[in-house]
Amino acid sequence: MKSIKTWILVGFASLLLVACGQGGGGAGSKKSKTLDNTKKAGFVKCGVSQGLPGFSNADASGNWSGIDVDVCRAVAAAVLGDADKVKYTPLSAAERFTALTSGEIDVLARNTTWTLSRDADIGLTFVGVNFYDGQGFMVRKNSGINSVNDFKDGISACTNTGTTTELNMRDFFNSKNIKYEPIAFEKADEVVQAYDAGRCDTYTTDKSGLAAQRTKLSAPDDHKVLPETISKEPLGPVVRQGDSVWEDIVRWSLNTMIEAEEYGVNSSNASSLKDSDNPAIKRLVGAEGELGAAFGLDNDWSLRIIEQVGNYGESYKKHIADTGILPNRGPNELWTKGGILYVPPAR
Amino acid sequence: MNLKKINIENKKIRDLIPQVLTVLALISVIFYFATNAQINMGNRGISFGFGFLSQEASFDIAFSLIEFDGSYSYGRAFLVGLLNTILVSIIGIFLATILGVIVGVARLSNNYLIAKTAEWYVEIFRNIPLILQIFFWYFAALRALPSPENAINFYDVSYLTIKGWYIPKFVWINFDIFCYSIIIALISIYFFNRYAKKQREEYGKILPTFTLSLGILISIPLLSFLLLGVSLSFNYPELKQLSETSYTYEKGVSIIPELIALALALSMYTATFIAENVRAGVIGVSKGQKEAAASIGLNKSQILKLVVMPQALRIIIPPTTNQYLNLTKNSSLAAAIAYPDMVLVFAKTALMQTGRAIEIISITMLTYLSLSISISILMNWYNKKMAIKEK
Predict the structure, then answer these.
(1) Helix/strand/coil (H, E, C) string of chain B?
(2) In chain B, which residues have their Cβ closer than 8 Å to the Cβ of A171?
(3) pTM score, two decimals?
């Protein structure tokens, strides 16, 4: 009888201890379940595409690269100290949001367009834009089609299903009053094959996607992308709604890469800039301020991102420009150089 | 009454208790998962509801049996997908049955070449994953078919091209009257057959039922053309230039290559299993049955029709029902080659556009379940009709 009483007492005491511990922790730093789970697991769970050159693409030995992949690498560098500690999950357009809301992945970096309904309606939060894109059309060069105004009734258009592309395509053809045949595939590879075989007269998706997929055609030089852009496609990383700390970490990991380019900080000079005269640069490399503490990270989180992943310009050059997908940065240039890349200051 | 006494001594109640407990356990498990899902969805700011079904779909579908464009609702899009699934299943089941019976009988042929060809066909198509066969038929067909300006021409009426098989469009006047005439014809055939059966069983008179039935089926609709103002004309497909090098056909009806490839792959694959069922059925009828039938003076076709087939069908029907169900369910692989079936249109596109995963997947699962159960009920009814009637 006595022993039971003792056990009950011990139980109460430990409960109290646990409660106090939680209370104490809550007062000191913010809690993030996703951050805790990520630290415990030792890797960032990242959802990527099933293969889109320049954005997220795996090589023969299974190493992922691309500017979307770099967002996940930046988060891993910030949170875990090692950009390689990422587990990639290739997802189709149809699977991506369910994978995120169900917790199978924690960051979705899969050339996903930021729209109102996605942001507000289905438990997702977009944290920023890492590529400003727009939808375009690819046609065969010998077709004599030089502009979307040359399209005629009866044209068949191949695209991906479950994307904003499908909706934009309808808006576009409706506004032009053109009857069209929409052939929507689940995977990008099948779209390319069907277009290549001649099933469709045009292939429509984001222009970056067209440029990337064109390289997979049997004769890439026989095809061209029409000049018109029919939609705004701001592509960016997405997180689950309801974990604001994790949301901030992903947002500022991306912002750090862009800000680093703006201040000329790159992977090779970052550590040497710790004693820079510019306070903005010093904050960026963790030599001043306590910015990391705001989301429970140490002060070198941003330095690790720049050192291990590089700034946005380096990432773009390596994955998009040097691979010949889109050599010209266009809107994805910094605001100081005529583009629209503009991030809030890290201070 | 003593409660204890009932519990122990009434066998019915004693047997009932474990069953009730099992059902309760099952309900609580389902309830647990439902609440769990609800709480998690609540935590993540996801709402649950079917209101989205009446929202505007705002995407188009390449091929639909009913009128559809993006201004219709998601509910309508679901219906389009469902009808497309039913269409490809019916075509698939029809072709698979014909092919299956031919191959199954061919395997039993005494001709070495025919039997071996049938055997090889079964072994090859049965053992390659269906999804690969679908890709093969789709992309092989796409590569092999000519572009519209060089179409394979069927007497200037129908054209087979990479963009689809263009057939004339039927333009009806008073189509409803024509429909009624077909229904009337079918009803009269039913009553005629009952009459013929009675004549055969009671007076031993054998009427040429097949020929007369066919006559009724042709003559009544024909009368509706001649007397009731039904008429039919055709809009033939016409070649149209889209750009300097690309063409299409307009005015006719296009059967999209995705449908052709899917129906072909499904029926070629399922036919192998049906062929094996047919073979098993025919082998399953013992030789003595045929000899006995021959000894009472039945000719070869009578033996097949009256003795062998009724018995073989009893063996063939139940496993073939499974194959029909498989074919219907396998049609969901359509998404891979862009045939707008229920999975592609509803469980993928609509799910993506609305994000309502739980609602849409439940609706899709329930629909497949109802489709399968309907086929089962139909086949069970047929099976019962064919089964031995013990008197």
Answers:
(1) CCHHHHHHHCHHHHHHHHHHHHHHHHHHHHHHHHHHHHHHHHHCCCCCCCHHHHCECCCCCCCCCCCCCCCCEHHHHHHHHHHHHHHHHHHHHHHHHHHHHHHHHHHCCCCHHHHHHHHHHHHHHHCCCHHHHHHHHHHHHHHHCCCHHHCEEECCCEEEECCEEEECEEEEECHHHHHHHHHHHHHHHHHHHHHHHHHHHHHCCCCCHHHHHHHHHHHHHHHHHHHCCCEEEEECCEEEECCCCCEEEECCEEECHHHHHHHHHHHHHHHHHHHHHHHHHHHHCCHHHHHHHHHCCCCHHHHHHHHHHHHHHHHHHHHHHHHHHHHHHHHHHHHHHCCCCHHHHHHHHHHHHHCCHHHHHHHHHHHHHHHHHHHHHHHHHHHHHHCCCCC
(2) 58
(3) 0.78
